Amino acid sequence: MKTESIQEFQNRRDRLNFEQITKNEHSLVNKHQLGKKAGKWDRESIVGNIGFDMFSTYHVDGFNVKRKFVIVKNSGPEVDSYNFWSFIWEKCYKVIVRLDATSKTHNWLNNSQDNAYAVGEFLIRKKTASISCKYYTQLQITIKNIMEKKSRTITHLQYHFLDEFPSSGSAQLISFLEMVNGNRGANSKKSASGPIVVHSIGCFERAVSICVLNICLDQLIETKEVSVLNAVLSVKSQVSLQFFSLEEYKFINKVLLGSLKVLRKRLDL
After folding, report:
1. Per residue in 178-216, pLDDT tens?
2. CB-based contacts of 228-231 (< 8 A; 24+ apart in sequence)
């Protein structure tokens, strides 16, 4: 599947052709069969010391970056999930991106008086919000293992409008993804930060789309070309996803189209 220059990408998806182009490409996405090397589920199904929690993890490559992401698909919120925080602790992850099926941020992130909570031997403490706006929040949190008497700092980012994505929100979402990349880069310089944890609750396909957008953004910046179809097929295979919806395919294309004006001016694309 060939890549497109920025001009080709825009011209083929003008107002008259957008629906037909995206439908045609999307039909190829779901006709493409998963190969023998498709990603296998790294499923964790464990009874922790607090209830039962099942989740799956999927490693996903970025653009020219091996295992840039790990998508965590939870059976419930992470607040009471012993296994989620145990997973974060054991793997030493430093950046978490939280995606929710609603536009409301998690109560714990909003409630200034509830600065900490305990899950098993882990004490999760919220520090100051370094960035907080209508579209996203960035927090520094610490996770302390009471048994080991050790603690680590984690950057926690959440985007607030993924279910009610406004037409004017493309630039904000791209800025958010650049911020995610910046945090990963900063942590990588300090220590081995590992992949970006993309934590989805009730919106697994949107988590896949966010990884695809991140890949497309990096490809645009590095090569001034892009292939949404290739990026979707690659991620779809790595997470063993049999079906990818037309709605999500349109979402990816709309975000890229809506952000190109800003990107072209800022990055000289």
Report:
1. 889 888 766 555 545 689 999 877 788 999 999 999 999
2. 228/25, 228/252, 228/253, 228/256, 229/1, 229/25, 229/28, 229/29, 230/1, 230/3, 231/63
Residue 41: inside a domain, yes or no? yes
Q: Which of 210, 148, 153, 133 is nearest to 177 (CA)?
A: 210
Average pLDDT over residues 98-125: 72
67 lies in a domain?
yes
Question: How far from the centroid of its chain's Cα atoms is residue 226's Cα?
Answer: 19
Average pLDDT over residues 81-94: 90
Taken in order 102, 106, 110, 113, the sign of the CA dihedral is positive
In a domain, 243, yes or no: yes
Alpha-carbon distance 90 to 70, whole Å?
14
Sequence-ordered list of residues with C-beta below 8 angstroms from that of 118, at least 6 positions apart, any chain: 124
Would 269 be classed as within a structural domain? no
- Residue 128 belongs to what domain range? 4-264
Number of domains in the chain: 1
What CATH code is carried by the domain that includes residue 215? Answer: 3.90.190.10
